[in-house]
Amino acid sequence: MNRHLWLLLGAMGCAPVAAVLDPPLAQLNRWNHALPAEIAAEPVSSPCDAANPACRRLHGLRAAACMEQAMAARAPRAACPGLAARPMLDCATAGYEQARAGDASAVLAANHAQALICLGWLSAPDEAARLSRAALSAAASAGPDRAPLLTLRARELGEAR
User: How many CB atoms are closer than 10 A to CB 156?
Assistant: First the structure.
C-alpha cells in the first residue's frame, strides 16, 4: 500500500505534493513567479511556523511587495506616501517584523525602519511615538550606510509627533 501511495504522489508531480506536505514552500514557489501586486494581495499561508525558513522568506517577500506598492503611491520627491497607502505600510511593517525574527539582515532592518517611519507620519501622536521607538531599534541594525539617515528620520518623527 505504501509503495502505491508513493507512486501516486510521484505521478502527481512535485508542486501538488509540496502544497500538501509544506504549504509555505508551495506558496514560496508560486511567489517566485508572481508580480509584487499579486504577492501584496495574498496573505502568507497559515499556519506558517517561524522556524520554517520558507516562512521568513514569505514574510520578507510580502513585506517588500507591500512596501513597493506603498512607495509607488508617493508624490514626486516625497520620502513617504500619503494616507491612502496606510494599508500597504501596515502590511510592510508586519511582514518585516516577521521576516526579521531570527534574521539579522541589515537590508531587512533598514526596510523595516523605513516602513515604520512612513507609517508613523500617518499615525496619531501616541502611535507615532511607539513607531518612532521601533524605527530607532530597527535602524540600529540597518548597517553603516543607512543607519545614520534612518536614525535621524526616526528621531525627527518622535520629536515632531
Answer: 14
